[in-house]
Write a structure and sequence with these properties.
Layout (H helix, E strand, L loop, with lengths): L20 E5 L4 E5 L9 H15 L13
Antiparallel strand pairs: 1-2
Length: 71
C-alpha cells in the first residue's frame, strides 16, 4: 500500500482503493474486518493468549458475548 498524502490517499500499488483486511481468532470464531489505516492488535499470539486467559478467569458464560475493548 502507498500513502502519498493524508488518510484519504491510501491506495494499492496499482492505484486502486485498498480492500479491507481481516484479523482472526479462530479458536473463538472471531473474524474482524478493518481498513488498512485502522488499528488492529499487532501481536496476534499475545492477543489470543490474553483473550484465552480472560475467558478462563471469567468462568462459564453460558452463551454470553464478551467484548475485547482494550486498545
Amino acid at each position: 500500500l502507498l500513502q502519498p498524502g493524508n488518510y484519504d490517499t491510501v491506495q494499492t500499488l496499482q492505484g486502486a482503493p485498498p480492500s479491507l483486511l481481516h484479523y482472526e481468532l479462530p479458536t473463538h470464531g472471531v473474524r474482524l474486518a478493518f481498513s488498512p489505516v485502522g488499528f488492529v492488535q499487532v501481536h496476534g499470539a499475545g492477543n489470543a493468549a490474553l483473550v484465552d486467559r480472560v475467558l478462563e478467569w471469567a468462568g462459564p458464560l453460558d452463551g454470553a458475548r464478551v467484548a475485547d475493548l482494550f486498545c
